[in-house]
Amino acid sequence: MDGPFMYEICTADQRLDCWTALQDPNHPLNTAWPHFLDNDPFQKEYADQMLQYVGLRRFQFGILEQDAQGGETMIACARSIPFFWPELECLTKFDPSEDARSRLFSSLPDEGWDWVVACGVQQYCAREDLPIPPFPTHSVALEKRPEAPDFVHHLFDPPNALSALSITVREDRRNRGFAEQLIDAMKQTAQQERLRILIAPLRPTRKTQYASVDMETYVSWTLPRHLDQPCGSTIDNTPSLGAGRCCAEASYVPFDPWLRKHIRLGGRVAKIAPASMGVCGSFTEWQAWTGIDFHRLRHHSRQSTTAKAGGSREETYWEITIPGGLVPLKVFPSAQVCVYIEPNVWLCHSIEGT
User: Fold this and answer.
1) Cα 282 versus chain centre, distance
2) 252-266: per-residue pLDDT in tens?
């Protein structure tokens, strides 16, 4: 890499022009994510439209790289959204105990990412007297998915929390502290906006290598703390599969590097969001998203199971791993559809001692 470079953190409110490059689906910050996640209906309905809302632009962060000739390139970005969390108001305002904190964390919904982006956008539009975008109808009936939002009675309450939606660093600029800077920028903005907590439906980065392992087990994996290495290093060790050592213990850290980074920066695991995102599509659509010819799929499958692929009729499905998937994809051969339900990890960063 040629240098020297200058770096600047800015918001979409300050430099909206720099975000236009991200409209290209082939931008490196877009291709870093599995293509099939772009087809989550909540992603399509809400997240892709957030920059059109002026009041939400200051919660979208980018890191600009400037070369010696003055050329600018966005090499990292973070998206977030403020929202009103009623349990935060009720459970912690007068009771900062550990028990109250546990009740607060348990109130986070199973629908994770989809829930919080819908919550934030609908609440914002209601407060600003803007047309409220529709709640997406979801064809995925296999798992629990968000129904009509349960926050409709709080549409006009001012936000008290900030949720990170994504943090992405260009592959050739990783392990240089940019992700940490973006997390810190979100924390600072939350504090300036008098928001009491930063949460995130986190997507563990190495979970793709262990798709058959359930998320709760994966999150419990640890490494000895002396193997925790600074930015620029790589951990290649086997996780501990012992009797669930607590990551809070001084001698152990989470196995997953992205989860480990958040914990090192003061984050805390709240709970698992088992149905955080969901994508349902035909064999033809999934072939375009993954490169797998599902019409010819006759093997590489697990034992058949029955579940609902949509509607009320139960059908047989197989499970296969797919590139970028945190869990196996469910393949319904009779209906010729595939269903992906992604779990995430709810993580919390305290802003005011919450």
Assistant:
1) 24
2) 889 999 999 999 999
